Every structure is written in structure tokens, then in C-alpha cells.
Amino acid sequence: MRLLIRLLVLIAVALGLGLAVVVYYIANPKLPAYTPAQQVHYLEQWSAADRQTYYFTPQGTQVKGLHYDWFQALELPFSQQRFAAPEYLARFGFLVDPAQKATPDNPGNLPVGFARHQNPGSPEQFLDITCAACHTGELRFNGQAVRIDGGAALHVLPSTVPTLRGGSFGQALVASLAATYYNPWKFERFARNVLGADYEDGHKSLRADYKRSLDMFLKVAWNDTHRGLYPTEEGPGRADAFGRIANASFGDAISPDNYRVANAPVDYPQLWDMWTFDWVQWNGSAQQPMARNIG
Please, are residues 95 and 196 in contact by the beta-carbon 8 Å criterion? Predict the structure, then answer.
């Protein structure tokens, strides 16, 4: 009996250590260092106002109920560094200009494609990741950067499926969301940052609203993992975006029978001349404008 107890204790310790290793690597993704460009050069095709409109106009999405100000107040799991700091998000491959400043269109000074979505008649503002996030590219040479508006992105955006390799924005975001909720000191800092003078009256309802958003992220992560929807670890620039969008639109929103494995070896296409094509998407499945913009 005593031997059995010791064996069970050893198994529990081993499982605990294994879980700790997994959590550590999920919460500390392997990311390249951020090296800011000496200067970002913009092609003479759009005005600065046109570019701001493309980069930061919301397109109607809500990232799992995540409020814009919540995103700005998030910390990394094991530090007080801001998750939404431009220099941190740039490590996932999102585009920032070292000279950029907060603007009315981009009050959080976030990378290209991180916008605010607000429904008519509602005071709530949600994080909205727009098409510009995936359809804006950049070339680097000798410390200089050339921005390619409408080009292909090279970030690691979508996956929430936990892996020891890490490096995915989605995985890192869920780790920060969970750490903020379950660490009472971190959540208090978060709530005071979000609520300011309304902390005493609003922190309980904020925690409940935040938990609903976190549950949505965790539900998607569990669903994607146990169904094996995304078996390929996508690197920079690679994503079966059409497959992911179809799973969200027809699987999450309509019926689980519509889920399909999404692992096509494709990347984000450039946008120029897209309007001249009769059919778009990598499988040639979309012809009319509504289907083209289903994402």
C-alpha cells in the first residue's frame, strides 16, 4: 500500500512538472528579437490619410468579445510588460513604424490592422483585426524598410492550438488573458487601468465580462485542438485563412458538422488587380462580393 502511494505521488509530481513545462513554453513563445527599422519608406501611391484609412478602419469583427481597452491593458504572463506594446507585437511579424504615434484612428498606437469596432448605439469598443493586418507587407534591407500596401504579410497570427514551439499571436494572447484572470494581483492592476476612478463600482462586472470573453477563447482553443482542425504548425506568412474563416463561419456559428481540416499550403495573397479576377480564394470558390469578403 505504501509503495502504491509513493508511486502515485511520483506520477503526480511528474505530471505536475510536465504541465509546468508546457505552461511555461506556451506563456513564453519563442519569438525573434525586435529590430526596428532605421526608417520606413512608403511608396508614392496613397496619401497618408488614405493609408490610415486602410490600416485602421474597422470592418465589423469582434475578436471574441475582447474590448479594445482590455487589449491595451493586458500584461505578459510572467511580467508587467504590456502585451500590446508595439515593439512586442512586432516580434510576431506585425508591422509598426518606429516613428508612428497614436492618432484618432489608432489611439492605442497599435500595428497595422489593429482597429476599434463599435456597434451603433453602443459605448463598447472591441478589438477588430482588419484585412490590412494580413494584406500589408514590408521589405527590409540594410536597416531600411519599404512598406508594401496591399502586399502579403509575414506574421504568425491565427493559431490558438497549444504547442511547445509557440510563436503564435493567438496562443500568446490566450496565455496573457488567462494569466490576467487567474492571477489576482495582475487582474487588479488590469482592472484599475481599465476602470480608473470607476474601479470600486465596476470591477466585479468587469471580471464577469472578461471571463465570458476568456471562455470564448478557451472554447475555440479546445475545439480546434481536440478536433485536429489545424494539424500543421504555420510559420510566418503561412495560413489557410479561408479554411479557418470557413470553420468559424460555418462550424462555430452554424453546425459542428461543417468543420473541416484546414491545412492548405498557402499564404496571404497580394490585393492588387484582385478586382479583375472572376474567382478568388485559393480554391477558386468565391465569385461575388459578399463571398469574397466573408472574413
Answer: no
